[in-house]
Amino acid sequence: MASSLRQRLSYWTAVIPVAALVALALAWGRELGPVAVTIVALLLAGAVLAAVHHAEVVAHRVGEPFGSLILAVAVTVIEVGLIVTLMASGGSEASVLARDTVFAAVMITLNGIVGLGLLVGARKHGILAFNAEGTGGALATVATLAALSLVLPTFTTSRPGPEFSPAQLAFAAVASLVLWGMFVLTQTVRHRDFFLPVTLDGEVVDAHEEHAAPPSARAAAISLALLVVALVGVVGLAKLESPAIEAGVKGAGLPQSFVGVVIALLVLLPETLAATRAALRNRIQISLNLALGSAMASIGLTIPAIAIASIWLDGPLSLGLGSTQMVLLALTVMVSVLTVVPGRATRLQGGVHLVLLAAFLFLAIAP
Fold first, then answer.
1. 3-class SS at 30?
2. Of the residues 12, 242, 281, 326, which has the fewest C-beta atoms closer than 10 A?
3. 3-state SS string for 205-237
């Protein structure tokens, strides 16, 4: 039965990306009715899940921490595609879409994914252990990226409003890429053991702890190809779905900035599930790698991509956070530091992070 279930899952994740491309070709350039919008939305969600599934297959082949890195990059490609396509559609709120989405991704990863992983992991296994050196380095990188890209624009004076000048935006983009590249080098080459699961005694757990054998090179190559197909489908279908997303947010009476929250929730849901599964297997380090890696990639890769896209996109690009958002970011960073420093955590820390996530969502709905 288990083998049959795996075969059905494999079949489903192979069909959906192809179906997404077919739907994209048929619907491109046409005005979609309610039924078509629903079908596109279902295919979009399915393509996101399929993309992350194939990223996990490739990740299982290459092992940790490369697996978490691949998954984070795949999710960020989806996020960038959604942001650019929605910004290209124009509108008065397009200028703050990148900021709202990146900030939402940071809050969801640092509070939602981390908090949920700590809560469910501690509930099942008691005290959780992780490597504070690697996790602390990742958190420091995320905090620096967030401050450079989301906080400084509020206080610079070259442009009116929370905007960077072209030179400042170029500097932020290059700095983001440099920090992300340095972290990747540290995580995968120089100090790879800092990002592997550990026991309560501090012993590193074998990176290939899964009982299931890793997929063959052929299976991994097929998943890599389907991952690319799924990502193309996600970006294209998001372009078709963007009017419905914005209309739905407006129809619900929510602030237009909530579109960014919807995008972040959409692309991070599968990764949240992967991190939760890792926590339930008492691999909280993998959960933290996924959360912090996604937060880092969301800033380190999205800001440079948006900077390049702004060359041909019309209108201003507002990146600076408001006062409420900066308070939430500062509190999140402070709490995250106190969570990471001991190298151990309980369900209390998970609950604190989830309360911060709830505060962010509530204030996004009722600012």
1. coil
2. 12
3. CCCCCCCCCCCCHHHHHHHHHHHHHHHHHHHHH
Token output for 322: 């408001």
CATH topology of domain 2-365: A middle domain of Talin 1 (1.20.1420)
137's tokens = 């380095």
Q: Where are the alpha helices (DSSP H) in the chain?
A: 2-27, 34-62, 66-88, 97-107, 114-125, 132-146, 166-185, 217-251, 258-280, 284-300, 302-309, 323-340, 347-365
The rounded distance, in Å, linking the Cα atoms of 272 and 288 is 11
Cα distance between residue 367 and residue 364, in whole Å:
6
| CA of residue 75 relative to chain centroid, distance | 5
CA dihedral 336, 188, 281, 291 (to 10 degrees): 30
CA distances from 50 to 55, 78, 134, 211 (A): 8, 12, 29, 23
pLDDT (tens digit, 9 = 90+) per residue, 92-117? 566 788 888 889 999 999 999 999 99
What would the pLDDT profile of 39-91 be if each residue is shown by its tens digit? 888 888 888 788 777 877 877 776 666 666 776 677 777 777 777 777 766 65
